[in-house]
Amino acid sequence: MSPAPGGATAGDHDHDRMGGAIGWAAGAAMAYLALVFTTWGFLSLFLERDVVPEGHSRFMYPIATTVAILLVAILVGVPRYTGIRRDRAEPSRQFGAAIAGAGFVWLVFGAVVGLVAMIAPGPGDLGGALGTAVGLGLQDFAPVIPITAAPILLIARVLIARGPGASRA
Q1: For residue 49, is pLDDT > 60?
Q2: CA triplet 61, 63, 64: central angle to 5 degrees?
Q3: 78-82, 128-132, 140-144, 154-158: which range is least confident on average?
Q4: 3 has which bridge partners?
């Protein structure tokens, strides 16, 4: 490795970037987890309903939510590793990417719900799994997935674009 300014090697810089990306991804995942579960808890309390409707596998939402959390971590960690240009640090410049990311998280969440519905109680048919994915992807609790992902992704992307030590004023 060739020395970089200050005596650090290029490998040290890559290691620092990877560590920063993992830290940002873990922080975003924890914030997202807390936001989703808190929102679901309050909705369940106020609506007096279970999060997972009767007749469906109790593992359906935990598995799909785990995938959504990992996806949010990836959607934050990759831009942190690769970088976002400083001229794109305004929230309005990152809004589209955050909304697209939240929509993608919701789509994957619905696909996992459908997959679990297809295999959980026994082998099911594709039509029933698609119906479950669409039905549960739009019911009371599922829209919390993109609604809570969007602000997490937006805030993370804006802060990543501003970079360390940037003025927050």
Answers
A1: yes
A2: 60
A3: 128-132
A4: 9
Output the CA–CA distances (angstroms, integers) from residue 73 to 24, 105, 112, 169, in the order listed.
Answer: 8, 11, 17, 27
d(CA 83, CA 88): 11
H helical segments located in the chain: 10-47, 60-82, 91-119, 126-138, 144-162
Phi-psi label, residue 148: left if phi above 0, alpha if psi -120 to 50, beta otherwise? alpha
Q: What is the DSSP letter of 50?
A: -
98 neighbors 157 (Cβ within 8 angstroms): yes
Local structure of residue 3 (DSSP, 8 states)? B
How large is the average pLDDT for residues 132-153? 83
Residue 46 has pLDDT above 80, yes or no: yes
Q: Rg for the chain (alpha carbons), in Å? A: 19
Which residues make Cβ contacts (< 8 Å) with residue 73, sequence separation at least 6?
25, 26, 28, 29, 32
pTM for the model stands at: 0.79
Q: What is the dihedral of CA 153, 42, 68, 88, to 10 degrees?
A: -10
Residue 19's identity, in one-letter code, is G
Indicate whether 169 pLDDT > 50. no
